Every structure is written in structure tokens, then in C-alpha cells.
Amino acid sequence: MASNPLVELQRYGQSIWYDNIRRALLETGDIKKKIEEDGLLGVTSNPTIFEKAIIGSTDYNQALRELVDQGKDVNEIYEALAIKDIQMAADLFLPVYERTNGVDGYVSLEVSPRLAHDTEGTIAEAKRLFAAVNRKNVMIKVPATPAGLPAIEQLIGLGINVNVTLIFSQEVYEKVALAYIAGLEKLSSEGKPIDRVASVASFFISRIDTAVDSALEMKIRRSNDEKEKDACYGLIGKVAIANAKLAYQKFKEIFSSERFLALKTKGAMVQRPLWASTGTKNPLYSDVYYVEELIGPDTVNTVPPATFTAFRDHGKVALTLESDIAGAQRVLANLAEVGIDLREITQNLRTEGVRLFIESFDTLMSAIESKRDAIISGILERQSANLGKYAEPVKAAIARMEKEQFIRQIWRKNAGLWKKEPEHQQIISNALGWLTVVDAMVDQADELKAFGERIKQTGFEDCALLGMGGSSLCPDVFRITFGHIDGYPRLRVLDSTDPATILSLEREINPAKTLFIVSSKSGTTTEPLCFYKYFFDKVRQIKGDRAGENFVAITDPGTLLEKIGRQQSFRRIFLNQADIGGRYSALSYFGLVPAAVMGMDIKTLTERAERVVNACERCVPTEDNPGARLGAILAEAYKDGRDKVTLITSPKIASLGAWIEQLLAESTGKEGKGLLPVDGEPLGPPEVYGNDRVFVHIRLKSSADESVEAKLRALEQAGHPVIRSVMNDPLDLGEEFFLWEMATAVAGALMGVNAFDQPNVQESKDNTRALLEEFSASGKLPEPLPTLEDDGIRLYCDDETEAKLEEAVKQSGAAVSLTSYLGAFLKQARPGDYLALLAFIQNTPTNNELLQSARAILRDRLRLATTLGYGPRYLHSTGQLHKGGGDNGIFIQITADDRDYLPIPGEPYSFGVLKLAQALGDYSALVSRRRRVVRIRLGKDIEAGLRSLVEIVEKAINL
Fold first, then answer.
1. Within 10 Å of residue 207's Cβ, how many Cβ atoms?
2. DSSP character at residue 339
3. Which run of H or of E encompasses 383?
4. Are 52 and 614 contacting, i.e. CB atoms less than 8 angstroms apart?
5. Is 117 helix (H, G, I), strand (E, B) or coil?
6. How far is CA 549 from CA 62, 92, 569, in A?
7. What is the mean pLDDT of residues 327-341?
8. Residue 737: which residues within 8 A CB-CB, separation 6 or more?
9. C-alpha distance from residue 608 to each of 611, 733, 859 (Å)
10. If you average pLDDT over every residue of the chain, what do you get?
11. pLDDT for res 270
């Protein structure tokens, strides 16, 4: 206990309460364990917390059904569920309450936020709830609105414990404290005991920094005064702490006054400041910032789950609340000097806080109504799986995970769950931020929406996302799924070095009216930087020194891209949470900034994601955890050779498959292992598949397709496992992103691989770099002689492969031709193999249709899983699995002669040279690992070359 920072806080007079409540936390013993091991002393709740708990989990399904069967209406259902939770929690904390003589051990329940401006309504509701809960250690939460202040005084005067919420300013805090004292005086004047009447004043922290930082950043962007800019930079992230420290000084003053001391002699307790909203919203700040900086006597800090875990892990305890009070005063004085009115900001925050709680409450009521209707109508659960013989192994895996507390270890960010080696653990520890980023992004939703509105009002017609891999795939899902939203810029995604693709984008936009989002986690990724150089040059030719206002950067802190953005005066630089890998970044700035610019409903998207986060939490039994269950299914099927995860999606959300493809392949494809995602392959009858498939059907609720269902039933009858997921609407993509991230992490742990590194991606990059250096020195790339050429199509292979194919053709008696060589190459296929088409050409509808027809031929005749990847995008996706996974891949790389090589400003090579170097670099990496690979080079007429290639494939497969 002594070594636990959470427990150590009590030595300094601070109590830790938990800002979360849900049925599973209570029933599984999670809260009890926190009380016993972590010194937890109380719990707070609010409408948003209950919304997440009731709607985002299966905890309440049985209770909901029982209440529906009893004929309860929506309000009665909510109240029954909430009061039951509060009573259960209060009973758990009763020993704490008794041990601390009523100082701690409280559980809070909020009056309806709809009553925030109704004094009499608040009083009546608080009295009713206090009586209904019927526990002496419950606090009723009342907002510190003008109507709430007299209600607080009257409720204290009635002996009801009150948690005063939504306090943002020192002025309001003082009024709250005086209302508490006035209530005690009233109670005392009636001769009633006051020694067990308790209250806390919930002073909100991080929301202040979020609002003030936004105002400071806006002022920095608009200012030409370097001195003013420096002053603003010096205030970022400091105002909330300074405001709280000065409020604490008011607390000390008020509760050492003669007025209160007269009550204290009768046993009155001080109304402790409770630091609320202490989860870190800004990824640049420490995840325990708002705990470490506010430690002092007679205070409470109510922390969300992620902060609770983080502080237990690495929190530092010291008396900080009264350090540098003069500095805190200077911070607020300097804020006023730069022209930012803190009073106005805090008033707006209180108004906004009430509005958000009302929205959450209304959403909760609507969602309960939907669940009620779903129960009444008997709609099936949205996720199901027909596992056949794998049902028992999956059940056993889930039992093992429960016993070994897999999910708890994931949420505690225990790197040892995946690997024991220190070098692996260091990588893993710095890659688990995706677990908690949704919570931060929910709080950033309004700011992102405001940013999108500003871009819209500026008059941009298009938005071009310049990225690669994890930074481009999620925005591409949004682009394809939601299309062009009226009034907002049309989102376009560039993640190809193919010159024709780049020129096509350039022809479709007006650079002067296009916002370019340069997106790179490392800030040094070759492709986005080259795209930036090309289009920045185009905009500079039009706008000169103002070119930067057409650019936004998304990157990690301290990268080259951040430096470029500042030097070139980019319109905005979004610094992402650094502990998130690219393929796990969909629900961070990398996915959400482009979504906001194109006009998507970020708030709903992130709230949907948060619900599935809640459903995958540590307190949920593993068998009810959808992410854990999906991960267990994939891992157990893999152990039996079913390593081809075949994705079937509704046409509207078909692009989701490419995002899942990168996540699964790059996360699991290493150490000779791997799950191969098969995206975009047409669904066929059972006889065209081997026994190496798992089928995953993801569809929209509105897109039921009986022909697809019939095929899936046939596959089930043939013994193939089939997983089904139904999305209510496209905004459920938020759910799918987190669900697959959790499932991939779980599958990786069960397979024994580090799901967060990509060791073999670097091989192709290094080869490409070496080739470009050679080009820079000699002016040309090394191009080997073709093995043979037919009708303008050339075949290349390494010496060992050439000898094997030559011998095979000779043995068959067939004439030497591209067809016979390709036929001999394909005859190397074994059961359990897969065939990958790696196309370094423009992805046009016609080209794609021709390549898909080749896929269908190869799949149906060879009974092999097939994939289609466009280079260089696949290098950041399935490319890891090709080289790091098992030796069961057959690779046909396709290149062509570009009509325009397209120079890159500031580089000695063109996009055409870069693309060819990337193709040759990956080809060389595959050869060095002795993978079965050939390269086919088409001429300049790519479409004609592809048509010939499809004919050759069809003939070769029949030899």
C-alpha cells in the first residue's frame, strides 16, 4: 500500500474519488478492489457517465429487460438503474464513511440537468432522490448556476449532503462556499446536528485549459507581435492550475473565518474543494498533470479511469497546491494583459457544461427508449458468430483470458502481456495511447467542429490529405463512405507516388482554394513530405509568402514536420498524442481532423466510439467483451491454420476493409506468423475456398442482402467460421475502429507477437533509400535485364527463380513464353498459400476491374486467398506481413512505364523514379527473404497491358 501513489495522497490530506460508475464495476469487485488496494474513498457520477455505462455496455441488459417486462416507462427505467447503482456503491463505501467519521465514503447522484435553472424544481428533485436512495453516504449533485445557489443553501439547511458541480471561477466558488455555510447556520439554528452534513465544491480544471489554450492559440495565429506571441505561448497549459490554486486560497480564507469557526465548534466539516475534470485533454501534457499539480490538505480529486491508472503507475506525490502562489497570480494577470477575459470564459464553460449534461441526459433517455424498443421487438444482438468446431477452443481461450486478467493488463498498459524482452516492452509501452485517446477526442469534438466551420467559412473548396498508411487510410474510409457533404470542402486523399495519380488530383483542384493536410506521425515519412514539397510549390507560385495558410500539419510533437509547419506559417499544427502507432490512430487527430474539415459529425462519431470503449473495459467479463471475443476467435482460428481473415462488407462501407487490412496485417505479420486480411475479394461458393479462411461480414442495418446471406450460410454449412457485425449507420465506424484495435491487440497477445511494431517495413525503405542514393549519384536506377518479354510485357525474376522456372517449362514440354513461365510459377502454389498482386500503377476503376478479374481467376482455379495492394500504399500495410509473416505468399509485382515522371521540388529524383525505386526496393526485400516473387512490367499503355496480362493469367492457370 505504501508504494502506491494513490494511497500516498492521503498522507497529504487529499482524497481520491473515482469519476466513473457502472454495474460491472460494482458486481465484479473492481470498486471493492480499488478501495482495498488503491485507497479509493468515493465515487462521482453524472448524466454523461450514466449514458456511457447504460448504453455502452451489456451490464444492464437483464435489468432493462425486467423493467420493460414490468411496463416501466423511460424515466422510471433510468431512475431504477441509476439508484440501484448508487445504492450498491454506497453500501461498498459505507465502511470508509464510518472509518473517516463522515469525511469520505460518498457516492454522488445528480439531479436532472434540465432543472439547472429551476431552484424549486432542484430542491424538490434533490429531496426525492436523497430519500429514494436512502443512504447516509450519498451526495446529491447540484450545479452552481444562479438558480442552483439558493437550492444548495436550502438543501444543506435540510441536512442533505450536496456535491456542488460545474464551478469554474473563483467568484462562483466563493458564493458556493458561503451558501454552504449559510445552510449550516440554518440547520444549527433549528437545533439540529451539523456534524454529519457534508459537501464538496467541484471545481473544474482541464476544461478551463482547453478553452483558454484555444483562445491563446487563436491569438497567436492572428498576431504579428512576437512579444505578444511569446507571452501567449508562456500561458498555454498554466491557467487552470493557477485558477485552482487561487481558489484554494479563498477556501482557506473562508473556512478559517470566525463565521465558520463558530460552526466548527459544533462539529461542522469544511466544504472541501473537489478537483473535477482532471483527465488530461491535451496530448502534449502529462497524463497525470492535473493530479500532481493540485495536491494539498482538505481536498478531493475525482479522476477518470485512465488518470486513475496512470497515477497509480507513475504519479509523483508532493505538496504542490500552495507552491508558487505568486506565480499563479502572475499567470492570471498576464492572461488579462494579452486580452483574454477569464471571467467570460468560465461563464461560457458553465453554460456549456449545463448544455452538455442536458444533451447527455437527453441522449441517455433516447437510448434507453431505443433499448426498450429493441427488447420489446426482439431485435437480435448486432454481433454474432457461427464458430462450429471452434466454439469450444474460443470458450477456453476466453476463460484463460479471464483467469489471467488479460483485459485488465491491457488497460493497465502492461507491455509484458505481449513480450518480455525489454526492447519490445519499450516499443509497446509507447504505443498504447489508443486505449484512452477516445476520451480526449470526445472532449476535443467541439473544438474540431469549430475548426471545420472556420475552414468552411474561409472558402476552401477542397481538402487534400497528404499521407501514407495509418495517416491516410482512415480519412480515405471517411471520404469514400460519406462523400462530399454540402457546404464543406471535398476531401481527397493522396497516398500514392504514382505520377498519374498526383497529376489527376492536381487537375481536379484549384490549389489556391485547397486546404492541404500534411499527415505523418514521424514527420519524416518520405511520401507525405514529397507531396508537401510538390503542392507547396504550386500554392507558393500563386500566393507567395502566404502559401502556408493553405496547409495544416498533423504529427507528433518535436518532429521535422512540426518544424516545417512553424517555419512556413501553416494555418494550424495538430500535435497528436505521441504514444499511438499510425495504424491505431484512426480515432486521434490523424483521423478526426480530416473528418472535421469535410463536415462529419465528430461528436456522434466519437461518442459511438466511446460506447464500445466502455463495452471493452476491464470491468466487463471477458465473455461479454466484444473486442476480447473477436480477438480470441481470430487467434484460435489462426492456431488451426485459418489465417486468412476474409472481409465482406456492405458496399457503402466497403473502404473499411482496407483500414482493417493494414491494422491486422502490420500488427500480426511477423516472426513467421500472421493474420492475412483478404479485402475486396468477391464472395464465392464453398468449393473455391481452402480450409484456411475465417469470414467476417460487416454490414449496415439498412443493407441486408439475401444473396450474400445465402452464400454465408453455405459457407457455415461447409464448416467455415463466420463472424457477423451489424452497424446501425455509417457513424458506427467509430465503434468498428476501436473494436478492431482491441481485437487486434488481443489476438497479437494470444499469438505471442508484438502487435505494435513493424520491423520488416524498414527493409523496403532502406532498399529504396539506397536506390535513390544511387540514382542521385549516377542519374539512373539499376534496371536488370528481363527474364523474357512477350508482346511488350516483360517478366523479371531472380536467378534462382529463373532457373527453377526454366527447368519446369522444359520438363513440361511447353514453348518458352511469358504464359508458360507464369504457369510454372503459379504451379508452386501449396494449400494454405495466398497470392498477392502488388500493383505500382494508378488505381483507376478500369485498372482495378481488370486486376479484380485476375484475382477471381486465380482464387477460383487455385483455391488460394488473393490480395490486391497498390504500391507504395501496401508497403505500409500488408508489406510487413509479406516479409515478416510465414513463407506462404506468392507475389506478382506489377510495374509500368510512366508517361510523366513529375519532378519533386528540391529533390534530384522525380515521383516516377521514387515509385520505381519503391517497387524495386520491395522486390529486392522479398527476394532476399527467398519469397516466391516475379515482377511484370507493362508498357506505357497500362490498360492494354493489363488486359493482356489477364489473358495470360487465364491461359497460364490452365497449363
1. 22
2. T
3. strand 383-386
4. yes
5. coil
6. 54, 56, 7
7. 96
8. 474, 586, 587, 591, 609, 659
9. 5, 8, 37
10. 94
11. 98
What domains are defined for the chain?
A: 5-206+245-312+349-356 (3.20.20.70), 400-411+620-751 (3.40.50.10490), 434-609 (3.40.50.10490), 761-957 (3.40.50.10490)
671 dihedral zone (left: phi>0; alpha: psi -120 to 50; beta): left
Cell of 645: 481473415
H and E: helices and strands count for the chain: 38, 24
Helix, strand, or coil (residue 794): strand
* 670 a catalytic residue: no
Burial class (CB in 10 A: 0-12, 13-18, 19+), 779: exposed
Of 34, 141, 219, 644, the active-site residue reads 141
Distances from the Cα of 758 to the Cαs of 133, 296, 428, 838, in angstroms? Answer: 53, 45, 11, 19
Residues 157-194 have pLDDT tens digits of 999 999 999 999 999 999 999 999 999 999 999 999 99
Could you give the residue ranges of the DSSP H alpha helices within 378-508?
A: 391-403, 406-411, 422-429, 434-458, 473-482, 499-508
Dmax (CA) for the chain in angstroms is: 111
Please count the CA atoms within 13 angstroms of the CA of 111 that sit on its side-chain side. 32
Give the SS3 label for residue 689. Answer: coil
Contacts of 202 (CB under 8 A, 6+ apart): 44, 141, 163, 164, 165, 166, 167, 274, 276, 302
Our measurement of the distance from residue 804's CA atom to the centroid of its chain's CA atoms, rounded to an integer in Å, reads 48
Q: In the prediction, which pLDDT does 331 show?
A: 97
| Nearest CA-CA partner of 442 in 168, 48, 737 | 48
Grid cell locating 753: 507477437
- The per-residue pLDDT for range 255-299, each reduced to its tens digit, is 999 999 999 999 999 999 999 999 998 878 999 999 999 999 999
How far apart are the C-alpha atoms of 700 and 121, rounded to whole Å?
A: 43
Q: At what angle do helices 30-38 and 74-99 cross, to 10 degrees?
A: 20
Angle at 215 between CA 213 and CA 217, to 5 degrees: 65
User: Is residue 872 reached through a cis peptide bond, with omega within 30 degrees of 0 on the bond before it?
Assistant: yes
pLDDT band at 379 (very low <50, low <70, confident <90, very high): very low
Q: Which pLDDT tens digit goes with each residue over 645-656?
A: 999 999 999 999
Q: What is the pLDDT of residues 683-694, one digit of tens each?
A: 999 999 999 999
Percent of the chain with pLDDT over 90: 87
Task: Tell me the C-alpha distance between 943 and 844, whole Å.
Answer: 10
Which residues does residue 42 pair with via DSSP β-bridges, in sequence order?
17, 106
* Pick from 906, 926, 925, 904: nearest CA to 915: 904
C-alpha–C-alpha distance, residues 22 and 16, integer Å: 18
CA 33: distance to chain centroid?
28
| Residue 457, C-alpha cell as written in the block | 467559412
Residue 892 sits at φ, ψ, to 5 deg, of -120, 105
Q: In whole angstroms, what separates CA 616 from the centre of its chain?
A: 13
User: DSSP alpha helices (H): ranges in 509-655?
Assistant: 526-543, 560-567, 589-597, 602-615, 626-639
DSSP 380: P
Residues 411, 414, 417, 423, Cα dihedral to 10°: 140
Specify the pLDDT at position 370: 63
| Burial readout 370-381 (b: 16 or more C-beta within 10 A, e: otherwise) | ebbebbeeeeee
If pLDDT is split at 50, 70 and 90, which confidence band does 620 have?
Answer: confident
* Beta bridge mates, 43: 18, 107
Instruction: Specify the residue for cell string 478551463.
Output: 208
